Amino acid sequence: MVVCLENTTWDVPENWEEGAKADLYELSRSTKTLVDTLTVRNRKLTLQAKNTPYVLYRQGEKPWIAGNFGEGTPLENPGFDTPDLFMWHPKTENARVETTISANHDPRLTMSSYGAGRTEISQLMQGLHGGTTNTVYLFADISAGAQMTLQVSCVGRTYAATQTKSGLPSYNIVKYAGTFYQKIKVTFDLPADESSAMLTILASFDTSGGCINLDDVRVWENETRSPQITDPGREDYLLYEDFENVEQGYGCITPAGNEGSAWDFQAHIAEKTQGQFLDYVVDGRHSLKIDQGGEEPQTLLRTYPNSLKLKPDTTYDIAFGYLTGVTGRHALRVKTDRGNIVYEYLFADTGLEPGTHSLASRFISDTFHTDGCDDYYLSIDLVDGSITAQPESPEEGSAAERTVLSIDNVSIRIHTED
Ligand SMILES: [Ca+2]
Ligand SMILES: [Ca+2]
After folding, report:
1. Is residue 73 in some structural domain?
2. pLDDT score, position 3
3. 159 CA distance to ligand 1 centroid (A)?
C-alpha cells in the first residue's frame, strides 16, 4: 500500500521488465477500484499525487478483496469490518449509529447521542442448529448516561441482558485487558425445528447523552447444556457455573488483573479426556484450573458486577467443588474492596483419588450473610504463595503438579428456610 503525497517514483522488483504494466487500485474501507495502468520506465514506476492509499498489481492480476465478513458464522459483519450496516438494520431516535476505528485500528460499532435518545441494530442469526443451546456475546464500553441491552428472540421467548457503565477495568481477555470493555452475553435455547433467532442490540441515552463502543459479536453453540440461572425452578440463583460451556474467557469468573495483564497464562479451562494419566477436573468434563499463581497474596480471579450482584443484609447459600494438593495456599472469599470479608473458605489438600494419579474432588455447601455493603464479589485469592505441596512425592506426582487448584460447580443462591 502506498500513500501518495506528491508525484512519487518507485523502483520496481528486479523481475519486472522494461515496459511492463501495473494496475493501480485505489483503496477504500471496503474495496479496491482500478483507476489507472502504469508502465515501467527505466526500472521505475511514477504515481501521480492524490493523498490517497493505493495498491499496485502486475497488470491482469486479480486483486484480493476482503469481504463477506462473518462467512461461515450465523451473522454478517459481526466485527463491523465494513462500514456498511444494512445487514444490521439500524434504527435511531435522536442518536447516531456508525462504524468507527479504535485506537488499535480495529473497526467497531459506535452508538452515541448528545442528549436523550435511543438506537438499535438487529440481525437474524441464521444457520443455527435446532435443539441446541447457544451463547451470543460481545464486548462493549458503555459511558455514563448510556445503557445497552443484548436481546435474543426466538419463537415467542426473549432472552436479554442489560448493562450500564462498568466501574472496573476488565481483564477478561487479552484484547481488552485494562480497558472498560465488558463482556455482555445471553444464552438461549433453540427449539428442535428452528434454525434462526433474532438478535437485537439496543442503546438508550439519558438527557446527558453518552456513547457505546462495541465489537466482536460472536455466536457460540454450547457443547452440552449447563443449568441456567434463568431456568424455571432456579429463580433464587444469582450465579451458577460448571465450566462445561464457556465462551471466550472463564465464564462468570475473570482474572483480577493485579499485574495489569489478563493473567490468562495462569488459569485455564482444564479438560478430562480418555486415557489421561492424571486430570484436574472436579466434575463433568471441564473445570477451571489455577496454576501456581505467584508469590504475593493477591486476588487472582473474581466476579464482576455484571456476573454477580449481591444485596446488603441478605443470607445466601454458596456451593462449589474443588481439588488441590496443597493446604492454606488459596481461599475462596466473598468480600468488598474495602476488606469486608463475609465468607472465607481456605482450600485444603484433597488427596489422591484412590487407585489413580489424579487429585480427589471435594464439594462444599455453606451459608453466609452480607452486611451493609453493596459491592461484594466472589474471589479466588492467593493467601500464602510460600506454601507449596509437600513433601515432594513422586508416587503422588511432583509438588508442582499438586500445587494447583481446580474449582467447579460454583453457585450462589438466596437462602430459604427449608
Ligand atoms: Ca472489529
Ligand atoms: Ca465441570
Report:
1. no
2. 46
3. 24
